[in-house]
Amino acid sequence: MEQTINDVFKNRAIKYKKRIAIEKKFKGKWESATWEEYYNQSRHTGLSLYSLGINKGDKVSILAENRLEWLFSDMGTLGAGGCIIPIYPTLTKEDVAYIVENSESKIIIVENSNQLIKALYALNHCKCLDKIIVMNAEDIKEDHTSIMSFKNLLDAGKKLHESNQELFENLSKAVTPDDIATIVYTSGTTGTPKGAMITHKNIMAVIKSLAQIKPPYAYDSDQTVPFLPLSHVFERVAGHFFGMYIGITSSYAESIETLLADLKEKKPTIVLAVPRVLEKVYQKIMSQVDNQPLWKRIIFSLGQNLGNKISEYRESKQSIPVVFKLLHAAAYILIFKKLQEGLGGRVRWITASGAPTANDIIRFFNAAGIMVIEGYGMTECVAPATMSRIDHYKIGTAGPPIPGMEMKIAEDGEILIRGENLFKGYFKMEEETKRAFTEDGFFMTGDVGKFDKDRFLAITDRKKDLIITSGGKNVAPQKIENLFKTNPIFSQFIVIGDKKKYLSAICNINLEEAAKLAIKNNIAFESPLDLLNNEKFNKALEKIISEMNTKLAKYETIKRFKIINQEFSQDTGELTPSLKVKRKVVHTKYRDIIDSMYEN
After folding, report:
1. What is the pLDDT of residues 355-393, one digit of tens each?
2. Cβ(80)–Cβ(160) below 8 Å
3. H-state helical runs in 332-406
4. DSSP code for 21
5. Cβ–Cβ contacts within 10 Å for residue 327, how many?
6. Are 335 and 312 in contact (CB under 8 A)?
7. What pLDDT score was predicted for residue 205?
8. Per-residue pLDDT reduced to its tens digit, 270-315
9. Distance from chain centroid for Cα 440
């Protein structure tokens, strides 16, 4: 019986042997490993780490983009009985040092020279850190007793295995379900990052739960092209570990910039994504439609309406009339096939987890034959707590609880969770851990929601994000933001208004769409950037906002707005690695601009 992720890994390596398990596009070329090779390389990594002093319960940090070495380090450390500390590569050297020191990491594995600089800073500031392993050997520019290349790490582990062929398996067997597999640090948007301790039992509870759902989400013949960071619990658990449990092939994209090309090349059947990715694909298609002749735009509009109707039939499990089937087949060839082809041509479903997604976007994908799986979860419940079923879903909800998940709604609307998936607590934060749970053991998520009669969860908003206007109206900003982001001119749209008499917004503008709007309204410009401060352009944008306000309740409408000229990004601090907006950062960084919308 498989009780730890180590058990799963060994069994899949035995079962699938010569089949490709993982591959990664690196510098334009695909590097791959069969299940046997994956296990052997991980075993060599784990044995070498063991020889460097990593014993049961010891911590190893990983500071890198998605790489095969990331996966070898993950499974090798777990096999040796250690605990992985994933660190986002976008973090500063100070943040890296804090996580290394707080987690008591003995070793840090980094990707390249940029991350090596951060690791050396940590080495000088963290008493616990003994060794730095560098994936790119060419980035080691000087001899340093504390620095080692990943190649040398593998070579040393291979020699140790040759001298003691039972050692790694014995270390793996000694790991128990209650041992901590990983400590995942929050992004720190609300203060000091907290390390969520996740056990092997927690991970196994989630992946076994997902595997129970029928019809299955995945088969061992499936292929995916992961692009979300392995540092994020969603990709690591719902992607990496669940994929391993099922036996699928994971072809990691080279980067977010090459994603569409990598999808077309590898032709995945399933894709793990976040709402922002779906929004960008949808906005790009809608932008292309706007440039078509009138007759094509009319056909597209008719096809989209038909697609929405087909989606409604499927959702309500009603039989689709024959005439609708015929019309939809024609609409698919003319319209929706291009979306499927853009993703490789074989995608059955794609996730939209981590934040709400506009219903129109979901229906558009569904009409193209790509089921959008909505879900809800967080680090503390080890990724998914609820998920839409392939044959049982309601658009606009996060689906019902996954098997084994106990959930309820508190009197104030907060979502509460209990189950074997729940994390062990925050590392070295006993008081924080106690405050996170109710007296009867439910984790307090901080999210507001409600269940319908069929136990489908609808997320209203974050408790801390809920806007209460000075008139006493409760407003969920994400609902409004998702509406505005269906228009391709808005790349980001953040609603403001807590304790204010009306709602306002700050936004990022898509420059290509800005140019189109200017031309349409006969607004002269030299560069699209010039338009962002152009009064006539702002008037044209104000008209778009007024039109979209008609779809909202009066108290939800946007009265004023400001354009932020700098695109929100991880590097500038406004976005998390999963592309969610850090509201606290945005409110602090643009306080003067926000205040100006409430003057007079």
Report:
1. 778 888 888 888 888 999 999 998 999 989 999 999 889
2. no
3. 337-342, 359-367
4. E
5. 17
6. no
7. 97
8. 999 988 788 888 888 888 777 788 887 888 888 888 888 888 888 8
9. 30
Alpha helices in 267-384 (DSSP H): 275-290, 294-315, 322-331, 337-342, 359-367
Are the C-beta atoms of residues 437 and 419 closer than 8 Å to each other?
no
Output the CA torsion 229→278→281→466 (10° steps). -100
Inter-CA distances, 541 with 293, 502, 507, 548, Å: 23, 19, 11, 11
In angstroms, rounded to a whole number, what is the distance separating the alpha carbons of residues 597 and 600? 9
CA angle 553/557/562 to nearest 5° reads 165
Q: What is the CA radius of gyration of the chain?
A: 25
- Whole-angstrom distance, CA of residue 366 vs CA of residue 360: 10
**Rounded to 5°, angle at Cα 470 from 464 and 471:** 115
- 278 has which bridge partners? none
Question: Which amino acid is residue 22, in one-letter code?
Answer: I
Q: Return the minimum-mean-pLDDT range out of 34-43, 420-429, 553-562.
A: 553-562
Both structure tokens of 122:
């940590």
Per residue in 101-119, pLDDT (tens digit) is 999 999 999 999 999 999 9
457-462, strands of its sheet edge to edge: 406-409, 414-418, 443-451, 457-462
Q: What span, in angstroms and rounded, lies between the C-alpha atoms of 95 and 87?
A: 9
- Exposure of 268 in the CB half-sphere (CA atoms within 13 A): 28
**Closest alpha carbon to 249 in 183, 366, 346, 342:** 346
* β 270-271/349-353 pair status: parallel
21-40: average pLDDT: 96
Question: Does residue 415 have a pLDDT over 60?
Answer: yes
- In the block, residue with structure tokens 């793996």: 172
Q: Are 407 and 415 in contact (CB under 8 A)?
A: yes
Residue with tokens 């304790």: 499
User: Cis omega before residue 356 (within 30°)?
Assistant: no
Q: Find the mean pLDDT for residues 403-424.
A: 93
